[in-house]
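Page 42, continued from yesterday. The earlier attempt failed because a stray header line got pasted into the input along with the sequence. Redoing it now with the clean sequence only.
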Amino acid sequence: MFFALGRTQKEVDGLLDSIRGALYGVAIGDALGATTEFLSKEEIERQGR
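This time it went through. C-alpha cells are written below.
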C-alpha cells in the first residue's frame, strides 16, 4: 500500500477508516436520494407531508 509508507499503523488505520466512512456516506446518500431523483420540488414537498 503506497499510502502506508512512512506512517504508523495507527495513522494508516485512521486513514482507512476515513476512506471507508466517505464511501459509506456516498453510498447511503445515493440510496436515500434515489427515491426523489426524478421528482420536482413540488412533488418532494407533497411527499413530506
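Notes: The chain has a mean pLDDT of 90.
Reminder to self: strip header lines before submitting.
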